[in-house]
Amino acid sequence: MIDLVDVQAGKPKIQVPLTSVGLKGITYPVRVRRDGKEIDLLTRIDIFVDLPANRKGADFSRKIEAINEIILGNSVVPGVEELSGKIAEKVLEKLPYSTSCRVKISADYLREKQSDEKKRQIVIPYGLEGESVVSRSGTHYKMVGVNVTGMNACPCAMETTRALISRDFPGNDEFLSKIPSITHNQRNHVRIMIEVPPGRDVEADDLIEASEKVLGGSLHSLLKRLDEGELVYQAHLHPKFVEDIVREISQEILTRYVDFPDETRIIISSESEESIHPHNAFAEIDSTLGKIRSGTVKAD
User: What domain count does the chain have?
Assistant: First the structure.
């Protein structure tokens, strides 16, 4: 019989508490049942716990055991945010030296939609996220979110080219003021994360629809010439900065979750892949529904 030393339980040379120790990128298949339908997801799971100063390491294998017991022990789950919370609770059962656990789950979410007037069916990929923090003090905090990629047209370059066209083709100012001008397109990445209050639900499809309503155009895997032209035309009719996008999405969220408490946390970000710059543009709101409702969002 081999007498194995529990190295993780030993004392470190430098006794400093760690706020976050864990594993990233654990891959598991998950089946979600929501609103009477089931979807299969290939999830990526990150697990983090705090570690006291007098302990050398965390027991990583027990985190995997916790995942196995929750996922493999259940054929279906109600959502990634619920799953993240269950895993966090199980991890704390197995790691008595940690006071809190944070679990993040992400997955690709494929959604069918119709691409044009001929009702062609296409499949668009989105990102799905769930995150929970569970502590021994009784705190249970969970969020659900989506990642949506679309397009937007730059309003700044549009007004500049309008002025240039007016200079080179004088006498057309009234006409030029009524139509979109030349500008550059940007691929825009929107991320929404919203806290899920006890007893409430947040649907990923609803967050996707809120994003695509604001974006100048959504992605399409299949576009015929007229459809492509309409997509670009509509984006140029409604040019937006990243700042505009996050502000408009925040208002969409308010109209969809009017009964959510004021303290509900919301994160909305927009990042544009610039076509004429070597850098990207970015804007974010990290606040609460109450502050957005009152118009008092402030930087920390």
Answer: 2
